[in-house]
Fold Phage protein.
Amino acid sequence: MIKEALQYIVGLGNLEVHYENGQSYSTQPLHLLKEPTTNPIEVRSLSGLVEYLTSEFDTESQLMVHVSSPTEVVAFSTLNLNKNRNEYIRATALLPSFSFDRFYDAEDFNIKLQSAFVKNEDRDIMLKVVGNIREENVKTVGDDGVSQAVQAKVGVATVATVQVPNPVILKPYRTFVEVDQPESDFIFRMQNGPRAALFEADGGAWKLQAMRNIKDYLNAALEQEIVEGKVIVIA
């Protein structure tokens, strides 16, 4: 087939082809003309991705939807002749800002807890502790190297030593808002100031759970397209 293709090209211009030791050589450089590929549409939600796929706006016999991370999903086609794919749409989660492993002052930490975390029991306990601190010093209590205590308001006019909860189970916004946010363990630490910080303590297991949640959401939202063989969802 290579010989036939080269012979056709020779007929179009001043190109000479030589055959030696079973291989083909040309007197001019040859460049591969690649098939064009698409630039993906960028959206910030799973619902936008689902709306695009169900609209069948761009006709394609079958698309694969890949949950590549807790914050990114991409839909692409099969390989073309050049072994490249057309990426049709990419969804990237829009998330509130929160830096783990960083100490915030009490006021900023209080605001972050309310704006970047789903309400649950441990979050509310932390809000009460951080929001009612009455002095700057943070004490270490016990002999386990973990427990801490602060002076906090515990009643209308009562101040007492309150133990800082640790570890805590929280649900920060770390994936698309359309799916359930994974719950995981965090180490809650405080410093004089007072300042507070959260440290992730689940080894990244939340990422796998988030990706499963996204896949479950897409399987339900694209059920008809999956049954018809138009869409395949992987994570």
